[in-house]
Specification:
The chain has helices at 42-52, 66-73, 94-104, 127-136, 189-195, 203-213, 233-237, 241-248, and strands at 7-14, 34-35, 40-41, 57-62, 82-87, 112-118, 121-123, 141-150, 155-159, 162-167, 171-184, 218-223, 227-229. By secondary structure, the chain is an alpha/beta fold. The chain has a single domain, classed as Spore Coat Polysaccharide Biosynthesis Protein SpsA, Chain A, CATH 3.90.550.10. It has a seven-stranded mixed sheet, with helices on both faces. The protein has a two-stranded antiparallel sheet with strand order 2-3. A two-stranded antiparallel ribbon has the order 7-13. The longest helix has 11 residues, at 42-52.
């Protein structure tokens, strides 16, 4: 059996306008909002976890208020990383469009593992293990999933026009995407085919279903690690300093 080796590259989606985080995002790039007792940009915790996975190179896919990211992180020297920036093409919409733009710019080789991380997701998941499992299976894509998702609302059980039970914000047993995935660079050519059918492409709702429907190997990586979507004002307000300290402080060691 021949073991294939891949170059490994972190790709962070950091170009969105963050409409669900307004009015904060009138002033901040959504990935740069301060979190935790040290008020670091949430994007810094993403970078530190990628660094912990042993990756040496990160590409930011940027657009809206990109200068805030570039001015803060520079070329990555103080993190011991190489950071590059690829500006979104306004003609290619959505997260899938950002990824397609990266592919078309010629930054990628044929045998690279891309660790794609949404810039507004905080997590301490073992990214190195995701990559290793992905490469071991020679999968086309590997999606990080959580089995526990807390609904943001109360749920009632109704029988005979009466509420017989009520649970506030229950956890439900579903495989939920946490906004982190590994893909092989070779499959990004499929985005060119997909964009012929749809102009505004989303990675999770368009690209991944397309790969599955076309027989590509898409593997799950199920984790019980901490993850938090900071994608709305309500979620940001509930992100306490204690939560950051409990789950992410070790990334700073």
């Amino acid at each position: 059996m021949v073991t294939m080796t891949f170059n490994r590259l972190g790709v962070i989606l950091a170009g969105g306008e963050g409409s669900r985080l307004r009015p904060l995002t009138y002033y901040f790039q959504k990935c740069m909002i301060p979190v935790g007792p040290r008020q670091k940009p949430l994007l810094e915790y993403v970078i530190l976890n990628i660094k912990r996975a042993g990756l040496k190179k990160i590409i930011f896919l940027v657009g809206y208020k990109a200068e805030q990211i570039i001015n803060y992180f520079g070329e990555g020297e103080r993190y011991g990383l190489s950071i590059q920036y690829v500006f979104d093409n306004p003609d290619l919409k959505g997260t899938g469009g950002s990824l397609l733009n990266l592919y078309r710019q010629g930054y990628l080789g044929e045998r690279e593992t891309l660790l794609i991380h949404y810039g507004d997701i905080l997590s301490n998941v073992d990214l190195a293990n995701i990559i290793e499992e992905h490469e071991k299976a020679d999968a086309d894509a590997t999606i990080a999933l959580s089995r526990k998702y807390e609904l943001p609302v109360g749920v009632a059980k109704v029988e005979n026009d009466r509420i017989i039970s009520f649970v506030e914000k229950p956890s439900i047993d579903l495989y939920v995407s946490i906004g982190i995935l590994a893909v092989n660079s070779r499959i990004l050519s499929e985005l060119d085919k997909l964009t012929l059918k749809k102009n505004n492409l989303d990675i999770m709702s368009d690209f991944i279903p397309y790969l599955i429907e076309n027989g590509r190997l898409v593997k799950p990586y199920v984790t019980d690690a901490f993850w938090y979507d900071v994608g709305s004002t309500e979620k940001y307000e509930k992100l306490t300093n204690e939560l950051i300290e409990k789950h992410l402080s070790r990334l700073e060691d």
